[in-house]
Amino acid sequence: MSSARRAPQERGQAAERTRERILRAAVEEFGAKGYAGARTASIAERAGVNQQLISYYFGGKQGLVEELRRRWARAQESATPPGATYAESVAAHLDATLDNPDWSRLVIWQALGDSPAGAADSTVGAGGSPAGDKDDEWAAAQRTRLREAVERTRTRQAEGEITDELDAEFVLLVAYALTFAPIALPRVVEGIVGADPLSKEYRKWVVGQLAAMTRRRS
Questions:
Q1: Digit-coded pLDDT (tens) for 69-107
Q2: For the stretch 106-117, what's the b/e string if a residue is b when 16 or more beta carbons lie within 10 angstroms of its beta carbon?
Q3: 10 Å Cβ neighbour count for 105?
């Protein structure tokens, strides 16, 4: 194959590598500063690219955070293999969250209301759509995923895998709190548990404690 024919493919691969560098840098920047505090100039500097490429590939800061939201949702959906037990499901989500602390900090920022709709410098998204519309769509999708998770917990209870003495909502909320606590409250977790909040030791302890809490009594 001639170099002329290879060139378009190579340009495409180079463009994809650039996009991925920008996204990795954006995760770090958003995780450290939130959406409102993040700057595209800082993201470009972290990625080692021209700032104009962020607008070219993603339409700006809002386009970046929207792509990261989509990726987080896909990662969460694929974190637990089909047929996983309750303990295996908790362990998988612990790993997905604690192995990617920058991603998890971004989720926490957004849960606190830090979003394109609330940022003074981004009231309109890429393509002219209001930033608030995108945030509403994301929030609605997140609520749907959480309600589905509650129903999966109820199914486990109905099938006798875990106790039905606790509300399904409480079981799920405790699991979420213990999963994100090492990111949101690392010093508190370390002070209480006496272990590195991101360690395998902490994860094993959480899985064991949740399994004991939800064990069905005969």
A1: 888 888 877 778 888 999 999 999 999 999 999 999 998
A2: bbebbeeebbbb
A3: 20
Q: How big is the CA angle at 28 (ends 23 and 30), to the nearest 5 degrees?
A: 90
Lowest model confidence (mean pLDDT) among 22-31, 114-123, 182-191: 114-123
pTM for the model stands at 0.79
Burial of 163 per CB tally in 10 Å (0-12, 13-18, 19+): middle
Residue count of the chain, please give it: 218
Q: Which two tokens stand for residue 12?
A: 């495409």
Give CA–CA dist 171/174, Å, rounded. Answer: 5
Q: Which residues pair with residue 130 across a beta bridge?
A: 124
Higher pLDDT, 160 or 75: 160
